[in-house]
Amino acid sequence: MLFFSYFKELVGKEVTVELKNDLAIRGTLHSVDQYLNIKLENTRVVEQDKYPHMLSVKNCFIRGSVVRYVLLPPDGVDVDILHDATRREARGG
Amino acid sequence: MGLTAITEREGEPRLDTENGEETRHVQPKTAIVLGNRTPEQLGTLYITTKRLIWLSDVDKQKGYAVDFLSISLHAVSRDPDAYQLPCIYAQIETVESDGYGDELEDQNSTNGENLDLSQVTEIRLVPSDPNTLDDIFKVLCTCAELNPEPDGELEGEGDWIFSSEDMMNANLGAVNGMSVQHGVGDWDYEEDELVNHIGHSNGLDHSLHENILELQIDDARFEDALEPEDEVQRSRT
């Protein structure tokens, strides 16, 4: 559940979601659920040449299981807290 | 997996009621567009707790269905550059397009009748009344959330089994790694893979990709990344 809690902190920030099919979508994180389904707002596709039809959809729901990476804004990450939380989670605590 | 044809109906689509499938939304007068083909004649969209179903109003033997498990993403598309009419856009995960599907690019340009439905990777739903798009989007979100990935089907990556002892060892490694100075940038783990790219660009001002922190959210992959650490710990003992 670590990443669920963690991503919830990032709501309202700009993130880029890279899917396992290589599509990368940038947008404002609207919400995330326990399955790491991600809702983005005001999205745009990073490589528009490759995916012209995906051009700026307003709201977008991305299935958690197709997400490969979430690229985070640097100022949205407190490395120390994340580090601690990761270790706690690994310990099963 | 993927889009399938529905050729039988009893007025409404036949639902898998034994497994609790229920209709959550019905949207009449909705066209469906498969890939880049021309829109089909009007039909009715049914959103159930398990599937998205479209049945033609004209041809009673024509219809399509796709499981929520196969819908990678869905979105409201209102940009006329993306599609001339406001619509719901959905991407469908097909077996072959799972990853590197470049060789399948042609499929969408096919305008012949014998389209392989299982290879359709995109659909658009165009309701006659565009004001309904937001409602349809919301129902799709709700129903997608009802269909999480079945356990143990994470692309064969769920094979890494960690005993609690392994986890403890991995932890010790992480703690040892903490002796590095902070704020220098990268965390100087002996096994960098342990944390993958988390925090790898502190204070550096490079391209977007370097400037943004990457975080893997797939648990199975995360465990995968721990594996080298695990091996090292074993060889030390």
UniProtKB/TrEMBL annotation, chain A:
Does the keyword field hold Kinase? Answer: no
Biological processes annotated in GO = mRNA splicing, via spliceosome
Concerning InterPro entries, the annotation shows: LSM_dom_sf (IPR010920), Sm (IPR047575), Sm_dom_euk/arc (IPR001163), U6_snRNA_Lsm2 (IPR016654)
Q: Which GO terms describe its molecular function?
A: RNA binding
Q: Which GO terms describe its cellular component?
A: catalytic step 2 spliceosome; Lsm1-7-Pat1 complex; P-body; precatalytic spliceosome; U4/U6 x U5 tri-snRNP complex; U6 snRNP
Q: Which Gene3D superfamilies match?
A: 2.30.30.100
Which residues are in the Sm domain?
A: 2-76
One family name in Pfam for this protein: LSM
- Name where it's found: Nucleus
Is Ribonucleoprotein among this UniProt entry's keywords? yes
Under the heading CDD domains, the entry gives: LSm2
Q: Which PROSITE patterns match?
A: SM
Q: Which UniProt keywords apply?
A: mRNA processing, mRNA splicing, Nucleus, Ribonucleoprotein, RNA-binding, Spliceosome
Q: Which family does it belong to?
A: Belongs to the snRNP Sm proteins family.
Protein function? Component of LSM protein complexes, which are involved in RNA processing.
| Protein name per Swiss-Prot or TrEMBL | Sm-like protein LSM2
The organism is: Picea sitchensis
UniProtKB/TrEMBL annotation, chain B:
Q: What's the chief localization of this chain?
A: cytoplasm
Sorted UniProt keywords: Cytoplasm, Nucleus
Quote the Gene3D superfamilies the UniProt record gives.
Pleckstrin-homology domain (PH domain)/Phosphotyrosine-binding domain (PTB) (2.30.29.30)
Tell me if Amino-acid biosynthesis is a UniProt keyword of this record: no
Q: Name one GO cellular component term.
A: cytosol
Q: Its Gene Ontology biological processes?
A: cell volume homeostasis; chloride transport; mRNA cis splicing, via spliceosome; spliceosomal snRNP assembly
Instruction: Give the UniProt subcellular location, in the record's own words.
Output: Cytoplasm; Nucleus
Ranges annotated as biased composition (Basic and acidic residues):
7-24
UniProt keyword annotation of Phosphoprotein present: no
Which region ranges are annotated with the description Disordered? 1-24
Which family is annotated? Belongs to the pICln (TC 1.A.47) family.
What is this protein called in UniProt? Chloride conductance regulatory protein ICln
Species assigned in the record: Picea sitchensis (Sitka spruce)
